DNA sequence: CTGGAACCGTACCGTACGGTACGCCTCTGC
DNA sequence: GCAGAGGCGTACCGTACGGTACGGTTCCAG
């Protein structure tokens, strides 16, 4: 029931991190067809060491995902002096970071791996990705939204609803299309439109929830 | 390059459809851990027959996904006499069908399977799912939106942007969370909120794109 | 009745891969 | 120098699964 996400940094040694890097590279290259032998060869270590350090294949996968996912960082926002302009800038920053992250190959690989795992009744990877992806965004964004509401810059009854609207306006169908391997949606293709999309999403969000809706 | 989605119904015989049903059931139960032996046993047929009919494991998977995905139907909407009320009803119907479909176990399974495949440089399944999911919605929704714009009910410069906004407002983070196996998001849990979410999404979309924005 | 096509069930083969065992090297503390 | 720990490389084992082969049964055409 409890997510049991590791809070301590789990402190991997540099050597272990090199192994995890190799695993991630192979994951990005070959998808979930990751073999222990391949990781051992790529990282120049023995399989025995892999099993000693990570227990089994799932442990290695979990460590890799966990270690990478934890690298995702949401922007810090100064909540002390919020005004219309600062709020807009913060929202745009959130949207930009969110989009930039989730169109990256690493994010796509991690999400695909976790989804593949979720298809086998194992939800641990999915929980890790969720916790470091959508939930991290939510944890960071909600206080901002609520602060902005207290400052009469935003108007909403449920901050949960407001967060989900923001998420939807920013992500749209981009992530699912990338996960499914949409040919017409190359990374560079999306990347070049990020700024425009960020602005559109922010404008729309402010139009819906901004206190001065009729400005 | 071309998607080469099969247009003809491919006309599977009833016996073949029974096999595909068995395959889908196993897919839903066991995830992508689908084995030819299991399908043969479940469908009471021989493996030789499976290979004869579908070529190989991928062929069976493709046939299953194709056959199921084609069953998804978007609502028909009467474009002839659009008014504010009819437009709202149409949008709500789209939102309801979209949400209902993609929280279903079949949809989740199909998407997971296609994503797992996309992680192995095979985009055929992904294309099938895309074509029968998001792209089908787009094909159906865009003409409505444009008709509504012609009738001065909606205001937008790009129908593509309007469609993507609608998609985002409706789907939000629901699909990705379900795909990742979010524990806090059971199907029934979401299902009970569909009507409320549909209304919210439609209201928001009309607030953004409705011609009478200040009503 | 007979030949053959379609298909079921099962046995079988080859391989890929997770996991283990072991020999050898290197580095460190005493 | 020496013992032991940590780790590399490789060989090995067991199994699961994709794919094939084959004997037996049913059904239909002529």
**Main structural class of chain A:** mainly alpha
Main interface by residue count:
A-B, 45 and 46 residues
What is the strand tally of chain A? 0
Helix content of chain A: 55-70%
Radius of gyration of chain A: 20 Å
- Summarize model confidence as the mean pLDDT of chain A: 90
Proportion of residues in β-strands of chain A:
under 5%
Q: What is the top-level CATH class of the largest domain in chain A?
A: Mainly Alpha
The first-to-last residue Cα distance of chain A is 46 Å
Count of DSSP helices of chain A? 12
CATH topology description of the largest domain in chain A: Tetracycline Repressor, domain 2
Described by its quaternary structure, the protein is homodimer
CATH superfamily annotation of the largest domain in chain A: Tetracycline Repressor, domain 2
* Coarse morphology of chain A: elongated
| CATH arch. level architecture of the largest domain in chain A | Orthogonal Bundle
Report low-confidence residues of chain A grouped into runs of 5 or more.
Answer: 1-8
Describe the 3D structure:
The structure is a homodimer of 215-residue chains. Chain A is an all-alpha fold and 215 residues long. Chain A has two domains: 14-69, Homeodomain-like (Arc Repressor Mutant, subunit A), CATH 1.10.10.60; 84-209, Orthogonal Bundle (Tetracycline Repressor, domain 2), CATH 1.10.357.10. The first copy, chain A, is 67% helix and 0% strand. Chain A has twelve helices and no strands. The first copy, chain A, has helices spanning 14-30, 36-43, 47-54, 57-69, 84-102, 105-118, 124-132, 134-150, 159-171, 174-179, 187-191, 194-209. In chain A, helix 1 packs across helix 2 (36-43) and helix 5 packs across helix 12. Chain A is elongated and about 65 Å long. Chain A starts with 13 loop residues before the first helix and ends in a 6-residue tail after the last helix. Residues 1-8 of chain A have low confidence and may be disordered. Chains A and B meet through helix 6, helix 7, helix 9, helix 10 and helix 12 of A and helix 6, helix 7, helix 9, helix 10 and helix 12 of B. Chain A binds a DNA duplex (30 and 30 nucleotides) through residues 15, 35-37, 40, 44-49, 51-52, 56-57. Chains A, B: Residues 35-54 bind DNA. Chains A, B: This is Bacterial regulatory proteins, tetR family. Chains A, B: InterPro entries: Homeodomain-like_sf, HTH-type_TetR-like_transc_reg, HTH_TetR, TetR_C_Proteobacteria. Chains A, B: Residues 13-72 form the HTH tetR-type domain. Chains A, B: Pfam families: TetR_C_7, TetR_N.
